[in-house]
């Protein structure tokens, strides 16, 4: 009788072990979900929204996003995140533009993740940056930081297929819409360059105040480009 009881108990333990083994989560590579689709084309000076969800069945460690110019293989932008969780969210907005690029510039958006098991996943999206033949193109903008300190340097380059004409620039305080600084430019060339230093300490700005640079430029055919870039005063 004891032998039968021992055999039954052994079979019960064996079944329990098998059940526990089945409940173990499988080890898979991370999953990369693009929450905002990467467009097939962008104009120079447009912003690319990177809204990405990185997921894993157990635990993610690293998530990265690269923007690479091809075939030059130049890395234009890198975003890195590190965590110990099942999900990592990436929300970035990147200004695409450089006066050194030719029309129909190929861009690769490379998304990469690694989990706690050292398994990786890579997803690549391709797009083309084109120059608008009718409107002026914003080719480059600085500062790259959104925080302005005592002196703000504004460096912008505009290009046109035929000829640039006029530029109107304003730095505005968002809280009361007061205009803190203005500048006008007039050229007869394919390129317009704005390189200005604004002494913010004269403007009596408070730390954390939000500012906007409002841009309005046009070309010889009367086509205009209007753009707003947001900044804030460093705390």
How does the SSE layout of this entry go?
Elements: H1 2-23, E1 31-34, E2 41-43, E3 47-70, E4 74-95, E5 105-115, E6 120-130, E7 137-142, E8 147-148, E9 151-173, E10 178-199, E11 210-219, E12 224-233
Question: Can you walk me through this structure?
Answer:
This protein is mostly beta strands and 235 residues long. The protein has two domains: 31-130, Immunoglobulin-like; 137-233, Immunoglobulin-like (Sandwich), CATH 2.60.40. The chain is 9% helix and 63% strand. The chain contains one helix and twelve strands; from the N terminus they run H-E-E-E-E-E-E-E-E-E-E-E-E. The protein has one helix at 2-23; strands at 31-34, 41-43, 47-70, 74-95, 105-115, 120-130, 137-142, 147-148, 151-173, 178-199, 210-219, 224-233. The strands form two sheets. Strands 1, 2, 3, 4, 5 and 6 form a six-stranded mixed beta sheet that branches. Strands 7, 8, 9, 10, 11 and 12 form a six-stranded mixed beta sheet that branches. The protein is flat, with a radius of gyration of 27 Å. The N and C termini lie far apart (81 Å). Residues 18-23 have low confidence and may be disordered.
Portion in helices? under 10%
Structural class by secondary-structure content: mainly beta
Annotated CATH architecture of the largest domain: Sandwich
How many structural units, i.e. domains?
Answer: 2
- DSSP strand tally: 12
Q: Compute the average pLDDT.
A: 82
The ordered string of helix (H) and strand (E) elements is HEEEEEEEEEEEE
CATH class of the largest domain: Mainly Beta
Q: Cα distance, first to last residue?
A: 81 Å
Total helices: the number is 1
3D shape: flat
Indicate the radius of gyration in whole angstroms: 27 Å
- Beta-strand content bin: over 45%
CATH topology of the largest domain: Immunoglobulin-like
What kind of sheet is the major sheet? 6 strands, mixed
Q: Unreliable stretches, pLDDT < 50, 5 or more residues?
A: 18-23
């Amino acid at each position: 009788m004891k032998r039968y009881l021992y055999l039954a108990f052994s079979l019960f333990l064996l079944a329990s072990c098998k059940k526990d083994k089945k409940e173990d989560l499988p080890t898979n590579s991370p999953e990369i979900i693009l929450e905002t689709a990467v467009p097939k084309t962008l104009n120079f000076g447009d912003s690319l929204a990177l809204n990405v969800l990185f997921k894993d069945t157990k635990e993610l460690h690293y998530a990265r996003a690269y923007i690479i110019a091809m075939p030059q293989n130049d890395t234009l932008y890198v975003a890195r995140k590190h965590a110990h969780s099942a999900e990592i969210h990436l929300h970035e907005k990147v200004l695409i533009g450089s006066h050194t690029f030719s029309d129909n510039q190929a861009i690769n958006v490379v998304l990469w993740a690694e989990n706690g098991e050292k398994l990786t996943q890579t997803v690549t999206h391709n797009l083309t940056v084109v120059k608008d033949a009718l409107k002026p193109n914003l080719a480059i903008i600085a500062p790259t930081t959104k925080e302005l300190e005592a002196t703000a340097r504004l460096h912008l380059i505009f290009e046109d297929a035929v000829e640039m004409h006029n530029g109107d620039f304003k730095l505005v305080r968002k809280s009361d819409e007061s205009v803190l600084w203005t500048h006008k430019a007039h050229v007869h060339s394919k390129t317009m360059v704005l390189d200005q230093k604004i002494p913010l300490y004269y403007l009596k700005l408070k730390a954390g105040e939000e500012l906007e640079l409002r841009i309005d430029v046009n070309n010889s055919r009367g086509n205009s480009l209007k753009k707003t870039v947001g900044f804030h005063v460093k705390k």
